[in-house]
Amino acid sequence: MGGSGGGGGGGSYTPPRTKSSSCEELEFSTHLSSPVVEVLKSIEVGDELEITLSASGTACVAIFEGKIAGSILGANLIQLINCIKAGNRFIAVVTTIDGARCVVTVVHESAL
C-alpha cells in the first residue's frame, strides 16, 4: 500500500488575457434572443443595431430604427452590461439573418 503524496506546486494561476479584457476590445457573436419577427423582416446582413439596456438595467436589447429587434445574451452579457453602465456604446452588426434567426457580432462603437 503506500501512497504517495504528490506534491504540490505553489504559485498562482493567472488566466490568459483575452481580447475582451476591456470594454473597447469587447467583441463577441451571438444569436438575438426573443427576436421580433416583424422587425427582423426589415433587417439585412451588415445592418447595425444599437445596443441599449432594458428598462430594468439587467438585460441588453438590440434596437433597429427605434424598435426592439431582440435581446442580447451570451457569456459576455455581464461585462457588456457593466460597460454600457460605465458609458460605453456598443453596436450589433448583423452577420446572418434567416427568418427569425439572426446572428450578430457585438462590437464597441469605436471599432467601427
Mean pLDDT: 87
* CATH architectural grouping: 2-Layer Sandwich
Query: What's the N-to-C terminus distance?
Result: 65 Å
What is the β-strand count? 6
Query: How large is the share of residues in beta strands?
Result: 35-45%
The biggest beta sheet is recorded as: 6 strands, antiparallel, barrel
Rounded to an integer in angstroms, the radius of gyration calculated over CA atoms is 19 Å
List SSEs in N-to-C order.
Answer: EHEEEHEE
Structural class: mainly beta
**What topology, given as strand order, has the largest sheet?**
1-4-3-2-5-6
Shape label: globular
User: Which fold name is given in CATH as the topology?
Assistant: Alpha-Beta Plaits
Total helical segments: 2
Q: Work out the helicity level.
A: 10-25%
Overall domain count: 1
CATH class identity: Alpha Beta
pLDDT < 50 runs, ≥5 residues:
13-20
Write out key terms for the chains shown.
112 residues; mainly beta; Alpha-Beta Plaits; 6-stranded antiparallel barrel; 6 strands
Write the layout of secondary structure elements.
Elements: E1 27-33, H1 37-40, E2 48-53, E3 60-64, E4 67-72, H2 77-85, E5 90-98, E6 101-108
Antiparallel strand pairs: 1-4, 1-6, 2-3, 2-5, 3-4, 5-6
